[in-house]
Amino acid sequence: TAKLYPSAMENIISKIPGVVDVLVGEIEDNEHDGFGLPVCFIIPDKNLSQEVISHNINTACEMHFADYARPKDIYYMDEFPMTKVGKKDVRILEENIKKNKILSKIKKPN
Q: Please, which of 26, 47, 81, 108 could form a disulfide with 92 given CB 3.0 to 4.6 Å?
């Protein structure tokens, strides 16, 4: 499995209608030699349904990324946690997934 580039995925997803902001993180995947699988954290436009936004994200990712590099899950949030220096903190979100603390999720369709 190749290296994932979150910034490349964020660049594509940030242009999708309904996406106000996006962060891409990785979760551990024991089935693929420990390589991480991408997950998306989205702050959505409240005027569009999560189902429509998820469909748009999945369609765009299918066009731009190999299957292994497409988001495994999409998590919807009201805001992103910030680091002490004011950057979006994707590590906290990844840790929250491990601890099952993020609840608003739509699975990638099969």
A: 81
